Structure formats: structure tokens, C-alpha cells
Amino acid sequence: MPPRRSGARSPGRRRRVLRGPERAHPHREDHQGVLVSPWLALAAGAAAVVAALALARHRWWISRDDPAGAVALDDLAPAMAGLATKGRVMPRDILALLVDLAVRGHLVIHVTGEGKRRDWVLHRGSARPNGLSPTEHSFLDRAFARHQKVSFRELAAERRGAVNKLATRLLAAAEQDGWFHPVTRPRRIGWWPFVLAGSTAVAVLVAGLGWLPALLFLAAGTITLYQPQLRARRTACGSAAREQVLARREALTGGTGLHTTEDVSRELPWVVALGLTSRLPELTRGIDLTQATAQFDWVRGRGGALEVGEVVAGGLADVAVEVGGRALVGVVVGAVAFLLDG
Q1: Which residues does UniProt assign to the signal peptide (predicted)?
Q2: What pTM value is reported for the model?
């Protein structure tokens, strides 16, 4: 009997033929049979989506405001409009404070340049400092030391410390007045998107999942990225302040707040704080402003100093950085899922 060759098949033994996905991934069967099944992977992805939705709902629930009720408030300063409506100091609040100080005679504003290069040049006014609040007095001493002239670009760039100190004082004043509940936890849970991105990578690489579970994990990460920002919760007093600011906006836009030149001068800081500068010609229609033309020229007008000031102050830059950062993280999560599953 001739000897059996090493490569010959033994009697009764059949060769296993790899077909379809097994040819490309010969170990896929072991992964699915030992680590996780496709249905379990789908269930895990669906659970991640449900968990992300539950987290978003929880963050919305704990950030709800208390009902306003009957709370009596003193007259609010225009610089507090952002805290009352958004829960944080906005760049428009700083601009509104500058306009308020200029209307009251504590600052003098001159416009320089043309078009997009228009800017404000500010210096201390001749009004007595008796009517200044401690916050306003501290800001003027920091930003305009020795009564020197400062452009708005310099104020936003080189003297940002004075602006940041002003924002901190405004927030402290709102907290001291009882507008917000004490915050006992971080305002952002920044590690959740990275956990979901890592779980997607591990699931696709180790468990050999398909596209559908990977997309479910990616959807969970996207929901977590774009969930509403957790801000400080308003008290009844804070809700009343918000309603008071919104009522003032309604009065200005409804035509019941501006009737004379004195009304326009008094409400001009609120026009800035509420973002109504582009509608100033509409709001002041029928009011003779010839005696106060110089006062309003540095506020209104296309490409005016106020619009340039908002850009310099970072109003648009903050939004661009936040949206761009979230979009970048979302693209990274999607790229990881695509590369590992491909």
C-alpha cells in the first residue's frame, strides 16, 4: 500500500469552503459566536440612543426655570439683559453698558474710519461720578485709567481684563440678587461624547459589527454632542427678571415705548442690549431726532461702529468656535466608524 501524502485528505473528512463575508473576514464567525451576536449589537446601539435621549431630557429637566409668581423688582440695568434672558453675560451687554454710560455723560464716543473699519474711540466724560454704581465705577477706572482715549478694538483686545472683570461682577450681582439656583455640578458633561466614540470604535473593531449598529452608536454620540447646554437654573426672581426684560422688548417693538427724543435717549441702551439696533429707524419713525443726531450716529447705520464692535467683542467668534468644535468632534466620530468598519 503506497504511503499517504501529507496534503491528502483523510477518508470521511470534508473541506470547508469559505463563502461571502467569511472569505473577507475568516474570523467573523468566531467573533459573532463568542463575543456578541448581530442582534445583541443592534440592541446595544439602540440602548445607546435611548440613553443619549434620556440624558438630553434629564439635562433639560434640571435646567427648567421656576415660575415667576409675584416678585417685585427694581429697575434693571441694560447690562443685565443677557443674564436675564440667556443666563450668561453677552457681548451686547458690554456694548449696552458703554452706551448707557455715554447717554448719562460718563463716556464720550467718537466714530472713526469708514465702512468695515469704523470703530469707536471712547474717553471719560464730564459727568460727576456720583450716579455710578460700584461695578460701573470699577470698570471705568480699569478701562480708562488716567482718562486716556481707548478705541473699542483696544478695549476688546488689549484691555480684555477689564471687560472680563466687568462680566464677573455682573454675574456676581445676579447671583447675589437670587436670580439663579446654586450650581452643584459641572455645566457640561464633556466626557460623554468620547465614551460613545470609544464604544463605537471598540464595537466595530473587536466585535466585528456591521453598519447599522455603528450608525446607532454614531447617532447616540451626535445626540449627546448637540444636547442643550446645561445652564444655571433660574429662581422665581430670575424668571421675573426675564419676563420684565421680554416685556420691555415687546414694548419697544410694539411702538408703545418710544414717543419723544427723551424716550429714545433713555431706551437707547435697551435697544442695544436687546439687539434692536438694526430696527432703530423703524422704532423711531415719526420722532424728531435732529437735535440728537450726533448721539445716535454711532449706533445706527449699516456697517456702523456697533456692528464692528460686536464682531471685535467676539459675539460671532464665540458662536463659530462652539459650532465648529461640535461639528469637528462629530466628523471625527463618523470617520472612526467608517475607517474601522471599512
Answers
A1: none
A2: 0.61
